[in-house]
């Protein structure tokens, strides 16, 4: 056999392997999709929607932390801003259809995100985390004081209304499928962003910022855009959450929420696509299960312990560790 | 009664005093953060929890063992300092060399654990600690009434702040610390036990927080969550002052307390947010903080 033959053989095998992997991924995604479609018949839809909202929140956060390397400790601000805006609009303007309320909430969160980004983007690492944290605290105090947020009580009885004025969202199943569609669309969007040339520049910035600068990339612009996209999606998660629970509360604005989304992302796997989704599912479940049982009062210390354990022993998170394992043993 | 901008003099000076006292706490806490950051490059998210431990410890020591204020002023920081050394030795050391973000997250987890456990035991409503007898009462300065204890807080905090500044900037031990910050490998080469230095520094920074906690016990409500709010404010103070400057941390701390007090006098609704507003403005004008070096 000549050398070119061998080479083309190798290429063929690689192609075949790639195709097999693609097929495996497609199968996995297909199975997940079917599970998600069937889930509300097995589990309580509102609980599932809670998971989806937090999963979207974590996916949004991960775009910034996992793929750009910027740790925001202020993402609660966007979740709450989306939630409050949507909640306020839907409660006070009955002519508004639900999706308009959600879009408005998302846009306001996006604008806020731009403001945050412009103020913080020149700082790096832990400094960036502190600045975003303090900015989010400013937003928190704003919500405590403003007349339209209901102060400590929050906004109650937000009407779910009708999607496009047609589909009744009071029905939990309708609501669930709406949330699912939005979630999947956002997930695919993030997947697309991450694998686009833009996403590759983000990863380059994460790996080595001075190198990215010297290659001629306007790094700050890339980072600002990533921040705004992340804030927008976080706002969308908050908007949907306020419609699902018909409630917008100060809890969402508290800095503990910013910590929680970090935990979700970290546990699931920073910088992986599926990680934040898995992490959100886990954390929401842990909180719910513990909240039911005798360990009701120990939720915070247990979450803290999970935090410590994750940081100490599996920093790449569940999905990250599985990927490592697969690469080592099957690659 | 004399008025300044439509506010009675007594009210203004009263708020100023409260501002200076809050500022003294901000200074102590941001100083501890600055010391820890200086050598370990760690943002100590557990700082608020350590402050809380100092205050809770004072009350618990008194209630259970009858330990008086003066002993607690020494004992509580030492105990918390030991907790700090243990945290450094068993947890933080294991992720040394990783991205600094992870130490922030680790200490955040530690804070959650401490705060959560104490909340379970003592509830969120808090403990009562009565003022030591010798501090009851106060002195009338003519334009305002100055309670003895508040005067003591200011004096004690400023003394400790100055002492720390002096130790780090002017003594041999401080020189080791600063050199360790610059190049820990080289220091190790000179035969200085850098890991020990790191442990002790973390313990010392945490002691400062606990000391602030003891000072706070008689005048603030002592609850397991008392540290979580003040911590964020102190972070803002640190951002305003700029990391890496010990003196900057102290001055900015006191300054921000005063700014907060003045805001409470003239426009109360903004008082809890004003420090964060100042932070935003400072970030726009001097991104590396008032006293920070260009990063």
UniProtKB/TrEMBL annotation, chain A:
<feature type="transmembrane region" description="Helical">
    <location>
        <begin position="261"/>
        <end position="286"/>
    </location>
</feature>
<keyword id="KW-0472">Membrane</keyword>
<dbReference type="InterPro" id="IPR043428">
    <property type="entry name" value="LivM-like"/>
</dbReference>
<feature type="transmembrane region" description="Helical">
    <location>
        <begin position="126"/>
        <end position="144"/>
    </location>
</feature>
<feature type="transmembrane region" description="Helical">
    <location>
        <begin position="100"/>
        <end position="119"/>
    </location>
</feature>
<feature type="transmembrane region" description="Helical">
    <location>
        <begin position="224"/>
        <end position="249"/>
    </location>
</feature>
<dbReference type="Pfam" id="PF02653">
    <property type="entry name" value="BPD_transp_2"/>
</dbReference>
<keyword id="KW-1133">Transmembrane helix</keyword>
<dbReference type="InterPro" id="IPR001851">
    <property type="entry name" value="ABC_transp_permease"/>
</dbReference>
<keyword id="KW-0812">Transmembrane</keyword>
<keyword id="KW-1003">Cell membrane</keyword>
<feature type="transmembrane region" description="Helical">
    <location>
        <begin position="173"/>
        <end position="190"/>
    </location>
</feature>
<feature type="transmembrane region" description="Helical">
    <location>
        <begin position="26"/>
        <end position="47"/>
    </location>
</feature>
<feature type="transmembrane region" description="Helical">
    <location>
        <begin position="54"/>
        <end position="80"/>
    </location>
</feature>
<protein>
    <submittedName>
        <fullName>Branched-chain amino acid ABC transporter permease</fullName>
    </submittedName>
</protein>
Automatic annotation (TrEMBL), chain B:
<feature type="transmembrane region" description="Helical">
    <location>
        <begin position="226"/>
        <end position="259"/>
    </location>
</feature>
<keyword id="KW-0812">Transmembrane</keyword>
<comment type="similarity">
    <text>Belongs to the binding-protein-dependent transport system permease family. LivHM subfamily.</text>
</comment>
<keyword id="KW-1133">Transmembrane helix</keyword>
<dbReference type="Pfam" id="PF02653">
    <property type="entry name" value="BPD_transp_2"/>
</dbReference>
<dbReference type="InterPro" id="IPR001851">
    <property type="entry name" value="ABC_transp_permease"/>
</dbReference>
<keyword id="KW-0813">Transport</keyword>
<keyword id="KW-1003">Cell membrane</keyword>
<feature type="transmembrane region" description="Helical">
    <location>
        <begin position="12"/>
        <end position="35"/>
    </location>
</feature>
<keyword id="KW-0029">Amino-acid transport</keyword>
<feature type="transmembrane region" description="Helical">
    <location>
        <begin position="196"/>
        <end position="220"/>
    </location>
</feature>
<keyword id="KW-0472">Membrane</keyword>
<feature type="transmembrane region" description="Helical">
    <location>
        <begin position="266"/>
        <end position="285"/>
    </location>
</feature>
<feature type="transmembrane region" description="Helical">
    <location>
        <begin position="42"/>
        <end position="62"/>
    </location>
</feature>
<feature type="transmembrane region" description="Helical">
    <location>
        <begin position="104"/>
        <end position="129"/>
    </location>
</feature>
<dbReference type="InterPro" id="IPR052157">
    <property type="entry name" value="BCAA_transport_permease"/>
</dbReference>
<feature type="transmembrane region" description="Helical">
    <location>
        <begin position="149"/>
        <end position="168"/>
    </location>
</feature>
<protein>
    <submittedName>
        <fullName>Branched-chain amino acid ABC transporter permease</fullName>
    </submittedName>
</protein>
<feature type="transmembrane region" description="Helical">
    <location>
        <begin position="68"/>
        <end position="92"/>
    </location>
</feature>
């Amino acid at each position: 056999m000549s050398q070119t033959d061998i080479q083309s053989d190798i290429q063929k095998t690689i192609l075949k392997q790639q195709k097999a992997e693609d097929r495996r991924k497609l199968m996995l995604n297909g199975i997940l999709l079917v599970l998600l479609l069937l889930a509300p018949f097995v589990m309580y839809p509102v609980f599932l929607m809670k998971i989806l909202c937090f999963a979207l929140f974590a996916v949004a956060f991960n775009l910034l932390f996992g793929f750009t390397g910027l740790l925001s400790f202020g993402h609660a601000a966007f979740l709450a801003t989306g939630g409050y805006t949507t909640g306020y609009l839907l409660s006070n303007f009955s002519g508004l259809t639900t999706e308009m309320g959600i879009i408005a909430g998302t846009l306001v969160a996006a604008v806020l995100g731009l403001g945050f980004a412009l103020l913080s983007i020149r700082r790096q690492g832990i400094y960036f985390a502190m600045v975003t944290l303090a900015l989010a605290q400013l937003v928190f105090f704003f919500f405590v004081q403003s007349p339209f947020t209901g102060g400590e009580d929050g906004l109650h009885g937000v009407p779910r209304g009708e999607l496009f004025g047609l589909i009744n969202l009071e029905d939990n199943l309708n609501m669930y499928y709406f949330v699912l569609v939005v979630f999947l669309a956002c997930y695919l969007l993030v997947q697309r962003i991450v694998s686009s040339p833009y996403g590759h520049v983000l990863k380059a910035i994460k790996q080595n910022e001075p190198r990215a600068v010297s290659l001629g990339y306007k790094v700050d612009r890339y980072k600002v855009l990533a921040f705004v996209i992340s804030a927008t999606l976080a706002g969308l998660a908050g908007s949907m959450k306020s419609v699902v629970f018909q409630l917008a509360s100060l809890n969402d604005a508290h800095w503990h929420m910013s910590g929680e989304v970090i935990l979700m992302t970290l546990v699931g796997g920073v910088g992986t696509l599926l990680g934040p989704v898995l992490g959100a599912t886990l954390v929401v479940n842990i909180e719910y299960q513990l909240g039911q049982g005798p360990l009701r009062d120990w939720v915070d210390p247990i979450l803290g312990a999970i935090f410590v354990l994750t940081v100490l022993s599996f920093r790449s998170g569940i999905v990250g560790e599985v990927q490592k394992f697969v690469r080592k043993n099957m690659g | 009664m004399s008025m300044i901008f439509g506010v009675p003099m007594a009210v203004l000076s009263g708020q100023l005093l409260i501002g200076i006292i809050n500022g003294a706490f901000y200074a102590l806490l941001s100083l501890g953060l600055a010391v820890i950051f200086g050598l370990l490059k760690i943002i100590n998210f557990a700082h608020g929890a350590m402050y809380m431990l100092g205050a809770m410890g004072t009350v618990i020591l008194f209630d259970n063992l009858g330990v008086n204020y003066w002993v607690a002023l020494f004992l509580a920081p030492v105990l918390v300092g030991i907790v700090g050394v243990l945290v450094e030795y068993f947890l933080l050391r294991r992720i040394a060399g990783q991205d600094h973000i992870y130490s922030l997250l680790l200490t955040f987890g530690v804070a959650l654990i401490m705060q959560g456990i104490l909340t379970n035991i003592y509830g969120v409503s808090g403990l009562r600690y009565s003022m030591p007898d010798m501090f009851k009462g106060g002195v009338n300065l003519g334009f305002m009434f100055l309670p003895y204890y508040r005067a003591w807080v200011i004096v004690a905090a400023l003394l400790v702040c100055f002492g720390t500044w002096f130790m780090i900037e002017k003594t041999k031990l401080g020189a080791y610390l600063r050199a360790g910050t610059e190049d820990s490998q080289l220091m190790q080469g000179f035969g200085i036990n850098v890991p020990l230095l790191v442990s002790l520094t973390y313990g010392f920074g945490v002691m400062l927080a606990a000391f602030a906690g003891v000072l706070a016990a008689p005048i603030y409500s002592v609850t397991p969550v008392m540290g979580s709010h003040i911590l964020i404010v102190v972070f803002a103070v640190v951002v305003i002052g700029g990391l890496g400057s010990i003196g900057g941390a102290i001055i900015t701390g006191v300054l921000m307390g005063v700014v907060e007090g003045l805001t409470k006098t003239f426009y109360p609704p903004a008082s809890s947010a004003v420090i964060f507003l100042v932070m935003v403005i400072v970030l726009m004008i001097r991104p590396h903080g008032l006293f920070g070096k260009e990063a």
